[in-house]
Structure formats: structure tokens, C-alpha cells
Automatic annotation (TrEMBL), chain A:
Organism phylogeny: Bacteria, Pseudomonadati, Bacteroidota, Sphingobacteriia, Sphingobacteriales
Organism: Mucilaginibacter arboris
Superkingdom of the organism of origin: Bacteria
GO terms of biological process kind: dolichol-linked oligosaccharide biosynthetic process
One matching Pfam family: Alg14
Designated name of the protein: Oligosaccharide biosynthesis protein Alg14
InterPro entries noted in UniProt: Oligosacch_biosynth_Alg14
From TrEMBL, chain B:
Similarity field: Belongs to the glycosyltransferase 28 family.
Taxonomic placement: Bacteria, Pseudomonadati, Bacteroidota, Sphingobacteriia, Sphingobacteriales
One Gene Ontology term of the molecular function aspect: hexosyltransferase activity
Listed InterPro entries: Alg13-like, Glyco_trans_28_C
Entry keyword annotation includes Endoplasmic reticulum: yes
Main location: endoplasmic reticulum
Subcellular localization: Endoplasmic reticulum
Name of the protein in its database record: Glycosyl transferase family 28
Gene3D superfamilies: Glycogen Phosphorylase B (3.40.50.2000)
């Protein structure tokens, strides 16, 4: 299976890397918003995507365009993300392209799930929160990135 | 050496000012900070707005103590290498963040007893001035990867 793992720079990216053993035996490619992160996943294909957030609509469209184009070229079987906005775009584009999609909400969202998670949960095939108190019918808990 | 980091996204003057003000009283320590500033100008400490990842990792490893905003990247990185860390949350009311989640993150990690938390500038200064370095220890060690149950859940789903 071809797995595409997406996360924004910072804590989202560090959380994504902690999931690596789950992808063993699959072909894995990464996407993030900072080119220098390629260093942290040597040996894997890495694609830089433009950052975006919900307030800058034009950038959001540009980011959506770049991410969708890349996903069409890559044809992943699964898109997984730990957020934030670019990950949400990846989930939507992945879904359109027929991939299975998984959203893992950041462990920083302790008291309520993020807005992106809320939106992602209506597209993604599976949505995780990292805190048991925050589960809903659609959003499941099964451990977190801490160990 | 004390390494102060506030991430590269937004400024966090309150934290930098708190450290800068007391730096002369922390005479035994070199202080290096990575932060962007909004209006404050530092007087006593060395500050860089961006440090490339490999240099950043070096400083992080060399430091005796990390002082940081309540960002998950820094928290996880510190706990992974058992580095003592004090966090101070960015607050929505001062426009330091887009939402209030750092306050909740700080509260949660304090509850878990994983690290040192300063709720505000005063507390941060008090901790740094009044706590002996031997007491500012690493409080929790994280493994390299996520919890087994999350890894298993994902790998079963991906099959």
C-alpha cells in the first residue's frame, strides 16, 4: 500500500514521525510545509507544500491546488495526517482521489477537538482524538503519541 | 546554558521579556533564545529569530534547561531526551495565539506531572530565580514512538 503522511511544521510534524512503526511494510511518502524537514525523513520521498490557514482564503486555494495536483500524481492508497490546515486539504483531496483517509487530531487539543478535526471528521474514513474525553460517534480514541 | 524557544510562528514577547529582565541575576548561565519579537528589544540575552534544524538540535541537546512556550514539538522533543523543561503558555487574550489551546495543554501536562509549568511571567521568573538547578529536573521520559495501542490501531487499519 502507498501511504502519504502529511503534517504542518512544528508539533504536528513531530507527532506524525512518532507514528512511523504503523506504516512498516508499506511504501511511505511525506509532505510538509518546510523543505528542511526532508532531512528528518532521509530515505523517503518528501514533498514540500505551501502552508495555509483558514483565515487566508487565497493561500488556502493555492495550497489546495498544489496538494491536489501532487495527490493525483502520487495516487496514494491512504492519506494520513496529524494536521493542521494543509492536512485537512490532503484528506479532502485524498478522498476525491479514492484514497482511504485518516485524521489524527493533535495532542495539543486537550479540552476540545480542533475546528479542522471537526471538518475532517465528515470526510475522513477514520478520525482519532488523542484524549479519551473527546470521543464522539465519529471520533475515536485509541492511545496517543506519548509513550 | 539555558535555551529559550518560542517557535517560529508568532512572537511571544512576554516570555522573552521575563527572561531578559532576570538574565543578569542568572549569572552562571549563558542564555540563548530563538524567538521572533513584536515590539520588545532584548538587552541582556542573545536572540535569533530562526535557527536551522541541525543547529537547533545541537543547542537543544547542549542546554541544561529548556524554557519554552507550550508547543507540542518542543515538549515532546524535551521529554524524549529527558531534558528539564519549563513551559509558559501563550494566551489568547494577549493575541499570542490563534486559539487558547496552549493554556489547556499546559494545564494537562502539569496534571500529568510531566514537566514544569509557569502560568505567567512572574511565576517563570520565580522558578528560575528561586529553584536550585538540581530541583529543575526532567520529570518524565518519553519513548521514540507513539503508544503501542495507537500504532496497532493504525497498522491494523492500514492492512
Amino acid at each position: 500500500m502507498k501511504v502519504l503522511a502529511i503534517a504542518s511544521a512544528g508539533g504536528h510534524w513531530i507527532q506524525l514521525l512518532r507514528l512511523k512503526p504503523a506504516f512498516e511494510g508499506h511504501s511511505l511518502v511525506f509532505m510538509s510545509t518546510k523543505l528542511c524537514f526532508a532531512e528528518t525523513v532521509k530515505g523517503y520521498n518528501f514533498y514540500r507544500i505551501p502552508d495555509a490557514n483558514r483565515r487566508e482564503k487565497l493561500r488556502l486555494f493555492y495550497s489546495m491546488f498544489c496538494i491536489t495536483k501532487r495527490i493525483i500524481l502520487l495516487q496514494p492508497d491512504l492519506v494520513i495526517t496529524t494536521g493542521a490546515a494543509p492536512g485537512l486539504l490532503g484528506i479532502i483531496a485524498g478522498k476525491i482521489c479514492g484514497a482511504k483517509t485518516v485524521w489524527i487530531d493533535s495532542i495539543a487539543n486537550v479540552e476540545k477537538i480542533s475546528m479542522s478535526c471537526k471538518i475532517a471528521s465528515s470526510f475522513a474514513d477514520r478520525t482519532y482524538t488523542q484524549w479519551p474525553e473527546l470521543t464522539t460517534e465519529k471520533i475515536i480514541f485509541n492511545g496517543n503519541v506519548l509513550s | 546554558m539555558i535555551f529559550v524557544t518560542t517557535g517560529t510562528q508568532e512572537p511571544f514577547d512576554r516570555l522573552i521579556k521575563a527572561i531578559d529582565e532576570i538574565a543578569p541575576m542568572l549569572s552562571g548561565d549563558t542564555i540563548i533564545a530563538q524567538a521572533t519579537l513584536q515590539t520588545y528589544s532584548v538587552l541582556n540575552i542573545k536572540i535569533f529569530d530562526f535557527i536551522n534544524p541541525s543547529k537547533f538540535n545541537d543547542l537543544f541537546k547542549q542546554a541544561d534547561l529548556i524554557v519554552s512556550h507550550a508547543g507540542m514539538g518542543t515538549i515532546i522533543s524535551a521529554l524524549q531526551i529527558e531534558k528539564p523543561i519549563i513551559i509558559m503558555p501563550r494566551l489568547l487574550k494577549y493575541g499570542e495565539h490563534r486559539n487558547g489551546h496552549q493554556l489547556a495543554t499546559a494545564k494537562k501536562f502539569k496534571e500529568l506531572n510531566y514537566l514544569h509549568v509557569a502560568d505567567n511571567e512572574k511565576e517563570l521568573q520565580q522558578i528560575l530565580l528561586n529553584t536550585t538547578r538540581e530541583k529543575l529536573t526532567s520529570m518524565h521520559k518519553l519513548g521514540t514512538f507513539a503508544s503501542e495501542s495507537l500504532i496497532n490501531s493504525l497498522s491494523n487499519y492500514i492492512k
